[in-house]
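ok trying again, last paste got cut off:
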Amino acid sequence: MELQQMRYVVAVAETRNFTRAAEQCLVVQSALSHQIARLERELGAKLFDRTSRRVRLTPAGEAFLPAARQALDAAERARAEVAAAAGEIRGRLAVGAIPTVAAVDLPAALKQFHLRHRQVRISLRSGSSEDLVEGVRQGALDAAFLGLPLGVRPKGVRGRELARGDLVAVVAPDHPLADEERVDLRRLSDDPFVDFPPGTAARAQTDEAFAAAGVRREVAFEVTTVDFIARLIRQGLGIGMMPAAFVSELPGLPVLHIRDAPARMEHLIWSRFAPSPVAAAFLATLGVSAAECSGAPDP
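nice, full thing came through this time. structure:
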């Protein structure tokens, strides 16, 4: 069993497409398919069910995938450790972030890190706080930036609190409340809302605030990206709730401060295990000390 074969399996599993996986791995599709078929013969089990319309993992493939990822990560880690011993930081850095991260200028931080460590391949994944915590737990991400309701802490990872702040209401320029400086939740509840899907930390912050105030609201539009939320608000289809520190990214939309506003805490998290040289270097860029990197994780 070869690492290249495992890399091909992971690529197909992630893209759900042999052609895109081959492009990602910089090989022709026939070579990728041949190597996966060879691995399946060696394992004595099919890893993928293939039809003309889709590719999906078999139960054997589902069982094989985590081990393949661990083997690839271990090989990457070994190369990075050898390079670090020679004074060079190289390898892969995978970072995750919520769309509304505001406590850190993440593009600037990534640029600074890139200029210092040009041999490191950087990737960034946007997602919900819940998915990002799981990505760090599983080792798919080296670090992630989260936004959680006050009092909620990510479990099974190390981390630090970055900042806390209130949410504000964002409305269309011609909304009747657009000239108001401060409102309460009850006045907002007459309008439909644009919000993130249920079950996400971003949605929970607002749901909990309305529940605590004894006010019901209608969430008519459930979307997953900030850009889409802003577009719906601009059209006057609903009110949005955003972190006060982030609304400067939404020019032209009036902002209303809220009495008894819901609040959130931004967190930086990383693995509960010893960070790789690349991850440690990135955390150091953010001011995280070596001692903090190896501190006790939350249970």
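cool. The longest strand covers residues 158-170. The chain has a mean pLDDT of 88.
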